[in-house]
Amino acid sequence: MKQSALRRVWLLVGWLALWGQPTLAGVDIRVAVAANFTATLEALAGPYEQASGNRLVISPGATGALYSQIANAAPFDVFLAADELRPRKLVEHGMAVAGTAFVYAQGIPVLWSPDAALIDAEASVLRQGLFRYLALAEPRTAPYGAAARSVLEALDLWDALERRRQLVRGSSVAQTHSQVASGAIELGFVALAQVQTAQGIPGSHWIPPAELYAPLTQGAVLLSSARARAAARHFLRWLQDDAEAAAIIEAAGYRRG
To answer: Are residues 83 and 121 both part of a single domain?
Structure first.
């Protein structure tokens, strides 16, 4: 009888060792991701899903808008923001798990136009005003929009462009990129990752000096409401530590955190 009971205990331990791990396959991990990182996360999804058997359910948006959704109990497991502020605030308010936040990437803003002749190496087009509209993400909710405003203020151009009503604010950097890529607006501040390809950057562009804007450190965090908490932790560890993930992020136009 004792041997039978002991055998059942060891069987239970073995079962837990096999199925109680974060790598349990077939789990949906709901990821709220900043618009600028969406394409990169989609590129990361394939290798991660193949390695883990889990699936990333991706919900893109402006960081500020996603933060508001999470604060109002939106059903996400992981938040990949375009800044560190929102993940930190979620931890402070008990809506994210302390000790799980980290910087997964540093973004690079770029002034970009599909017109190969519009933007030169000094971004002279900005001072000359040789455009009808300039697109940027909303500075109050989108970190790339805040960076764009900082650059324009450092160049002493923000007030003049505002006065002439030449600034068009998008809800996110994804919308800003769409406006410029479609030709609806001549040029705009977008994420380098949105325009960089294996062949280079099409059109014309200018990368602002890093000292003109606050670093675009992008923070990840595990949300307290996570239903797939073990799988979500596993994904975050993979994102932070995996060499293939790091290579994909850097190739996409980011610096590693």
So the answer is: no
On whether residue 197 sits in a domain, the answer given is yes
List, in order, residues 6 or more apart from 30 with CB less than 8 Å away: 57, 59, 75, 76, 77, 78, 227, 228
* Counted domains in the chain: 2
pLDDT digits (tens, 9 = 90+) for 211-237: 999 999 999 999 999 998 999 999 999
List the domain range (segments joined by +) for residue 140. Answer: 108-212
128 and 193 both lie in a single domain: yes
In a domain, 14, yes or no: no
Residues 92 and 159 in one domain: no
pTM: 0.75
Contact 173, 194 (CB under 8 A): yes
Reported as a pLDDT band with limits 50, 70 and 90, residue 3 is: low
Q: How far apart are CA 93 and CA 236, in angstroms?
A: 21
The 10s digit of each residue's pLDDT in 55-113 is 999 999 989 999 999 999 999 999 999 999 999 999 999 999 999 999 999 999 999 99
Please give the C-alpha separations between residue 48 and each of 9, 122, 186, in angstroms, as whole numbers.
34, 40, 37
Q: Could you tell me if 123 and 149 lie in one domain?
A: yes
